[in-house]
Amino acid sequence: MTRIDPMSNVGTSKVFLKLCSGPKNPKTIADLLRIKPPPAIEQLRRLQELKIVRLGQKIGRAQNYEIDWKAFLKLFTERAFTQKITHVESQKEKLKTLVENKYFEQFIKLYICRVLSEVTLLEAIQEFENGLLHSLPFKKKKAYDDEEKQEFFNITRLWYKRAQESMSICEITLQDALARTLNPKKFKDV
């Protein structure tokens, strides 16, 4: 029997989305989704099996769950940068170095937490990859004082031009996440 990827499950993606705003217990998640707690608990179990959600702080009798963003970024990049082989290996390796970059983490959080209301986790990763694979180099270069921010910009500028020309909700969200990551002072909610 073939096992279905939890990241392609709508329910699992909705539970993950609810955790994007911070730790929550199963009852709270169930109430937000207008479902009973057992299905929420099942989705949390699936996310724990993927090692992208972990137990958080226990408050009274309520056990909170939270996203392990480092583990999620690792899984995200493994899936996004290995499914297709149209980019040269050196570029894939360069992209994988972004996992430790704090700006990349902020970028992915913004992207995922906004796009999940429209698609599943797996679709978000695939759209992210498509945005990367169909992008053209961004001609305009910028200089940032922060070395880590400069590295993030240099690598991710590949996506910017493609996202600007795209009508895909994922790629529009990708563009928005890039802008909010590189220019957080322009946005109040970052």
Q: Give helix and strand order, one letter per element, not per position.
A: HHHEEHHHHHH
What kind of sheet is the major sheet?
2 strands, antiparallel
β-strand amount: 5-15%
Overall form: globular
Radius of gyration: 17 Å
C-alpha termini separation: 44 Å
How many domains is the backbone divided into?
2
Number of helices: 9
Return the structural class: mainly alpha
Supply the key terms.
190 residues; mainly alpha; Arc Repressor Mutant, subunit A; 2 domains; globular
Short summary:
With 190 residues, the chain is mainly alpha-helical. It is built from nine helices and two strands, in the order H-H-H-E-E-H-H-H-H-H-H. The model has no long low-confidence stretch (mean pLDDT 79).
Description:
The chain is mainly alpha-helical and 190 residues long. The chain has 2 domains: 6-67, Arc Repressor Mutant, subunit A (Orthogonal Bundle); 69-185, no CATH class. 59% of the residues lie in helices and 7% in strands. The protein has 9 helices and 2 strands. The chain has helices spanning 10-20, 26-33, 37-49, 69-80, 89-96, 102-115, 121-133, 147-165, 169-182, and strands at 53-59, 62-67. The radius of gyration is 17 Å and the shape is globular.
List the helices and strands and how they pair.
Layout: H1 10-20, H2 26-33, H3 37-49, E1 53-59, E2 62-67, H4 69-80, H5 89-96, H6 102-115, H7 121-133, H8 147-165, H9 169-182
Antiparallel strand pairs: 1-2
Helix pairs in contact: 1-2, 1-3, 2-3, 6-9, 8-9
